[in-house]
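Contributing new records

If you add data, match the layout below exactly. Sequence lines come first and carry their own label; structure lines follow with theirs. Keep one chain per record. Anything else will be rejected by the validation script.
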Amino acid sequence: MMEACMEYTVTDPGFPEGVVPEMPEKRCYTVEDLQSILICSKSTIYDLLKKKEFRFVKLGRTGYRISRKSFDEWLDKQS
């Protein structure tokens, strides 16, 4: 999962100075996330989506969000 690094300051008085709150765990993966996890091409991921190997939603014309839970369950069954 490639994420951009950004520097920001937390001004919420509930956090001590210099402490950055953790981001909640992702519930969905992107096609690029799955490419990194499986070390494969985009076309392989799209083939898996066409076969409906795991749950996903399509956003717009080319965006997909794959259920983390269903993907992780699918991956566990592949071993």
